[in-house]
């Protein structure tokens, strides 16, 4: 967060939605408060860029003395610390770590494997061992979470990457993996061509910002994998090309497919230690499953991102019906849904939840019809209502935006995600087949 003073600014709110590394987004709602001068831009642009390099994803400006809040690893000058202590316009919030361990599958202290969970695992194994896996039955069992041991094969099946027929799977895997690396040989050298160099440059910039505090994603070999996956996807989908935010969507697939070969903590595992063929298989599978996901939500990333605009509008209409108090509270303090929910839609809540929670959430999304496109709307509504008390306690625009862009989910686990999904299902049951219920 950065705060700067300027004689030409009257209570300017400047924030960075930054779904994946944007250096500054000005809300049109607040343009009337902003008098842009060359001096102002000269000071604020480097500020945004520096914060972005630090891995922070939001910057808020207020009319006040200069204040810079950096990661704990940086030492603040005494003068800045003194100013910070005097600063009362920002709501007091505890510092919450940005990431928790991927491997903590349940933050609520449940035992690793209960009798019920063992029975569920046995049921999955039985379904997967069938000559022709019953995909509807597999979806039914996957809705409430997929056991870690069988999650990779289950995700491949539910995404449509693998066929239900067991005998055909190895052949399909071999063919699709060869096809992907055929794309690499055919297209990847063109990343330096004039036509594609801007796309590759943006991907190259965004990759280090993907989960910057998880060591796994800072390994050069992993970043090279992500660069290849995203570049090949972009040139094969010219209608949208690469859009910031898509980089996040590779990570759950990569972690899940990596977990097949790792028994220790995934977040600290050295991927280069794996055999090259294994690395290549993880890369190809991640590409194809991400592609299947994006096929269902590509309008989120085409020009002007109409899919996201429509989903944010639908979220606003839905919340206005299910919790009028929150809706009116936002109106009172001039909070626009786009200011916080754009990122929720663009990144599928990945910036709001620990990665382990995203993986659990995606178990259900892949089991649910149109999970990533349609059901996600109800998850976002349930997620917003989850923070009802905290939202209504904030009585200014600044506090509301800071809360909504930094919701304290770092200690969430399977139990919390399960409750969130149950509430989302209830909302879907009430409103999905009766759209007039949430239209004004």
TrEMBL record:
PROSITE patterns: TBC_RABGAP. The keyword Phosphoprotein applies. Residues 145-369 form the Rab-GAP TBC domain. Keywords: GTPase activation, Phosphoprotein. It holds the Pfam family RabGAP-TBC. GO terms for molecular function: 14-3-3 protein binding; GTPase activator activity. Signal peptide: none annotated. May act as a GTPase-activating protein for Rab family protein(s). This is Rab-GAP TBC domain-containing protein. It comes from Dicentrarchus labrax (European seabass). The gene is tbc1d22b.
């Amino acid at each position: 967060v950065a705060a700067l003073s300027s004689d030409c600014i009257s209570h300017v709110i400047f924030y960075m939605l930054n779904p994946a590394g944007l250096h500054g987004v000005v809300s049109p709602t607040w343009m009337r408060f902003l008098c842009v001068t060359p001096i102002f831009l000269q000071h604020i642009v480097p500020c945004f860029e520096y914060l972005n390099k630090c891995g922070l994803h939001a910057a808020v400006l207020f009319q006040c003395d200069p204040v810079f809040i950096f990661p704990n690893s940086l030492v603040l000058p005494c003068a800045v610390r003194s100013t910070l202590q005097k600063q009362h316009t920002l709501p007091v919030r505890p510092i919450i770590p940005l990431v928790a361990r991927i491997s903590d599958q349940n933050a609520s202290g449940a035992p690793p494997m209960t009798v019920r969970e063992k029975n569920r695992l046995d049921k999955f194994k039985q379904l997967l061992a069938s000559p022709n896996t019953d995909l509807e039955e597999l979806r039914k069992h996957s809705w409430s979470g997929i056991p870690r041991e069988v999650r990779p094969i289950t995700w491949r099946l539910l995404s449509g990457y693998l066929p239900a027929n067991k005998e055909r799977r190895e052949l399909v895997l071999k063919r699709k993996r060869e096809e992907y690396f055929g794309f690499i040989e055919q297209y990847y050298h063109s990343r330096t061509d004039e036509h594609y160099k801007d796309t590759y440059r943006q991907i190259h910039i965004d990759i280090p910002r993907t989960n910057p505090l998880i060591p796994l994603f800072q390994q050069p070999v992993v970043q090279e994998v992500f660069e290849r996956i995203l570049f090949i996807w972009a040139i094969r989908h010219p209608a949208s090309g690469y859009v910031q935010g898509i980089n996040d969507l590779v990570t759950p697939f990569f972690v899940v497919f990596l977990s097949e070969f790792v028994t220790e903590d995934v977040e600290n595992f050295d991927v280069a230690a794996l055999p090259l063929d294994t690395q290549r298989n993880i890369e190809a599978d991640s590409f194809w499953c991400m592609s299947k996901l994006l096929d269902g939500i590509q309008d989120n990333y085409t020009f002007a991102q109409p899919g996201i605009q429509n989903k944010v509008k639908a979220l606003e209409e839905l919340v206005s019906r299910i919790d009028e108090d929150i809706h009116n509270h936002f109106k009172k303090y001039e909070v626009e849904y786009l200011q916080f929910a754009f990122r929720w839609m663009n990144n599928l809540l990945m910036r709001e939840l620990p990665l382990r929670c995203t993986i659990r959430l995606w178990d259900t999304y892949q089991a649910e019809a149109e999970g990533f496109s349609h059901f996600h709307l109800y998850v976002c509504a349930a997620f917003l209502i989850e923070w009802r008390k905290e939202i209504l306690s904030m009585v200014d625009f600044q506090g509301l935006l800071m809360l909504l862009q930094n919701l304290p989910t770092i200690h969430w686990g399977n139990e919390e995600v399960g409750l969130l999904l149950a509430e989302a299902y209830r909302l879907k049951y009430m409103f999905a087949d009766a759209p007039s219920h949430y239209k004004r």
